[in-house]
Amino acid sequence: MNLSLTLTINGERREIVLDDPRVTLLDLLRERLHLTGAKKGCDRGQCGACTILVDGERINSCLALAISYDGAAITTIEGLAEGDKLHPVQQAFIEHDGFQCGFCTPGQIMSAVGLIAEGQACDDPERVREAMSGNICRCGAYKGITEAVIDASGKLSAGKERDAA
Amino acid sequence: MSDAIPMPGGRNRFGSNSGQPLTRRDGVLKVTGAATFAADNHPDRLLHAVTAGATVSRGRVTFLDVEAAKAHPGVVAVITPENRPPLAMDPDEKPTRFSFRTEVLQDDTVRYAGQPIALVVAETLEAATEGARLLSPRYEEEPARHGFDAVDTYEPEAVGVGAPAKVGKGDVEAGLAAATRRVEVRYETPGQYHNAMEPHAIVAEWDGDRVTLDTPNQALVMSTGAFAAWFGIPAENVTIRSPFLGGGFGSKAIIFGGQVLAILAARMLQRPVKLALRRDQMYGPVGHRGATRQEMRLGIDDEGRLTALDHLTTSATSSFEEFLEPASNASLNTYATPALLARHKAVRWDIGTPGPMRAPGEASGSAVLESAMDEAAFAAGLDPLEFRLRNYAETDPASGKRFSAKALRECYADGAKRFGWAGRPLAPGQMRDETGRLVGWGMGTALFHAPMFQAEAKATLRADGTALVETAGADMGQGAWTALHQIAADGLGLAISMVEFHSGHSGLPDGGIAGGSGHTATAGSALHAAGTDAIAKLSELAVGDERSPLFGAGNVGVEARDGRLYRADDPERSESYAEILARAGLSEIGGAGQGARDPASAEERAMFSHGAVFAEVKVDPDLGQIKVSRLVGAFAAGRIINPRLASSQLYGGMIWGLGFALEEQAVHDRRSGRIMNANIAEYHVPVNADVPEMDVILVPEDDPYVNPLGIKGVGEIGITGTVGAIANAVWHATGIRARRFPIGIADMLTRPQAA
What we know:
The structure holds two protein chains of two kinds.
Chain A: E1 3-9, E2 12-18, H1 25-32, E3 51-54, E4 57-60, E5 73-75, H2 88-95, H3 105-117, H4 125-131, H5 142-164
Parallel strand pairs in A: 1-5
Antiparallel strand pairs in A: 1-2, 3-4, 3-5
Helix pairs in contact in A: 2-5
Chain B: H1 27-32, E1 47-53, E2 59-63, H2 66-71, E3 75-79, E4 109-110, E5 116-122, H3 125-134, E6 138-141, E7 158-159, E8 163-164, E9 166-169, H4 172-178, E10 181-189, E11 201-207, E12 210-214, H5 220-231, E13 238-241, H6 257-269, E14 273-276, E15 292-300, E16 306-318, E17 340-349, H7 362-380, H8 384-390, E18 402-403, H9 408-419, E19 431-432, E20 438-449, E21 455-462, E22 467-470, H10 480-492, E23 499-502, H11 519-543, E24 558-561, E25 564-567, E26 570-576, H12 577-584, E27 588-595, H13 599-604, E28 605-606, E29 608-619, E30 626-636, H14 643-662, E31 693-698, H15 722-734, H16 745-750
Parallel strand pairs in B: 1-14, 12-13, 16-17, 18-28, 22-23, 30-31
Antiparallel strand pairs in B: 1-5, 2-4, 2-6, 3-5, 7-8, 9-17, 10-15, 11-12, 11-14, 15-16, 19-20, 20-29, 21-22, 21-27, 24-25, 25-26, 29-30
Helix pairs in contact in B: 7-8, 7-15, 10-11, 14-15
Protein name (chain B): Xanthine dehydrogenase family protein molybdopterin-binding subunit
GO molecular function, one term (chain B): iron ion binding
Region (Disordered) (chain B): 1-24
């Protein structure tokens, strides 16, 4: 049984043939396309390490069956930087030390990018903590994560205002 | 924030890298998804392996539907005790002191729920997963043994990793008899699970009788010997690559059966095999913090001084192996008392074997010691901080030795000031916030050993003036790749940008164990020594060569900084490393170094990091919800190599303390013995919203005895002190002493309020 689908992954259109309907979006990315930035921490949508953007919205890719996403545009951590130029959220995570081991980091960053795009109040630490609570960091780098999201959100909205002016 | 602490004059040259709050050297790799963790590897012709786990806690497997599994498309092999190829080592043997008995399909016995009972290997992960499910095991089940009152206790010979089960001094019974007040309390702590974000994983690939393993590992070189023993090959035939560990916390220091089975399958099938545990498979086979029941007796005199301290822990271990949480030993080194007893008993349950988990012994023991001290302070009518100061240990209570350094008074003072501790009412239930929630303040003392293990390192100065440093260390998030790099650069007198740092590979010099909060001190000392050794050899070349401006400086010495050697008495006379090497016609010059504690210092001094943690909690009086609203920790841990990373370690440790106090526990079904919350949603670990405003203060401390660099460790101390501080704050808010962890809503609602 072969199932075909088309995905745009990090801007690149990919024709994909699957031999198995059970393949999740996460396992497709990791095991078949070798885009291993998104991580499998629980495979149950409980930890957030697999967070990616699908059509601009953050989702747990471990809970998504790949064949149900035909035609979707997907952004993973590998597609965030422009060449050597880090995305402001990536840069902020380094500057604010928003990680230790780095395993949850791709998910944290994709979640933060999605959160900022949702237009939520990212200047309020309490709101950021709540909205980032689907992404567990066992190392406990939450202070840096919260600071990074607030900082990057401010820079991104300042950039937008400049662009608009 | 503390900057570099100057070393006492002349003891050791120390450069400008250490003490700087550099960002992580591996930061770009980690924020772009380019950091490669074990399960990210995909060698050609890779097979996927999935273990099937027992669904009962005790008994025998009587049937596995192997045919159904093998019939599933894509399944390549099903390995059970019936057909498992032989291993070179008996599973009861222990090749290293960190080896535990484990399950490698040696027989049909089930010793705990979740134990691997078969391995299914397939072309795809999906096929292997389904194959494992199709095995539909049947069992001859025996009743599970679980619970402190359900089984007999026994007297263990040792606790932790070879620590004595009973240590004491003085006459505890006489001390208690002489006391004017006594506090006798019993606390319990549950089984807790490491839950590193990265599930344990291995990719194994054989080439003849050599095997390469991509697997996260906290003790690389030691583990090559252990893997080699399983397969009857020399240790040098085992290569472990562990460039990144997605958290370890002790659980990745010990080899577990699944790793051995994956390697075995790869040899059997002559193809690379990947095994990555599911989250639920991390509840049993890969260790945990064992449950404890702790009984404490404290005697206090009229002055509020301890007359005796007795700490008895009953630790739970598995039916087939022993790792006993050495919780009572947390009471050995903290408070002054004329009579002291730390002792342990043990019980065997049908569970996976516990193991070291971040601050093993100290976390559970400190939780209870600090809670009991708080109870004693109230009994004595004293402020908890004042009570601790009255019982301040000027020398190590257990050994009588002087401390190598102890800036605990400064920690108490700085932490209390930052927190605003002054004016705290003695009685509980006195404070409310603007929304009517009950507010409480609590504190605890933090303490952790400052050990060193054994490590080796190499340093090579190259013709272009750059250098390479190498040690098989492990970075599981603590920041070793950065802190060790900083130390190594200082040993060489070079800017960090001039030094290439290689680690995380077992082919490098033995970097020792990343554990026990001793990795930076041990591997760092080795790297620094390797650098100074290389510089010494370079100096010999220069001072012995009449063409060098440093010729003849052998007696006055030279100093290495910024890639040049300077005459110690004349900074105008210098020469670059590259010039010295070029003139000597050398392409490079190498040095080697070792890191280990000076036995004389260890004999003479007691060595610990110290700290003080202050907590504020708010409790909803109607719903019983507990929220930590503030945490302040002040820690003195010798020289801080990188304040940014050290602070992060301490924050992380304190967050673990929060999890211990209010969230974490494995809940076992009483009939089946199975863990009912073996997942990361129902086993609660702190999430971002649980974490309050936090403050970490790095209290300067110069410790000239721990090692020449003055480095202690910060990986584990943060959890100690914090658990007690939060529990004490809950009591101060509500008057309720839960005396079991985690403290939850049920404790707030079902017990009568004392206040």
